[in-house]
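Try this one yourself first.
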């Protein structure tokens, strides 16, 4: 029973992250990106939001995949499946850092 509830929660989180990712790929909704959130209001108005939407969308998509794998690992009681999470999380972090550097270089 606990496995079922845990896996349902993980899949719901994954679905929410996937929905966020799709909305960001379509450039709709509030931009959930630190560069945008912490920018001064005057800078936000003139900011090119497209690269930030894409960056957030890719990271949300990778995190959605992480939660899918976690859910599957819980359902099948397979700890080896959890090893797939490591490259996905590392990929999300590396992508976020590299894309932030590229966005900053383009904006200057």
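Now uncover the answer:
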């Amino acid at each position: 029973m606990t496995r079922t509830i845990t896996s349902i929660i993980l899949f719901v989180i994954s679905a929410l992250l996937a929905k966020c990712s799709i909305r960001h790929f379509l450039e709709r909704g509030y931009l959930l990106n630190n560069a945008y959130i912490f920018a001064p209001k005057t800078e936000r108005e003139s900011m090119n939001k497209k690269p930030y939407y894409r960056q957030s969308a890719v990271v949300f998509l990778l995190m959605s995949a992480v939660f899918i794998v976690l859910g599957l690992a819980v359902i099948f009681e397979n700890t080896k499946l959890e090893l797939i999470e490591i490259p996905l999380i590392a990929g999300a972090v590396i992508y976020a850092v590299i894309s932030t550097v590229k966005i900053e270089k383009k904006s200057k």
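Discussion: Residues 2-107 form one domain. Residues 11 and 68 are 6 Å apart (CA to CA).
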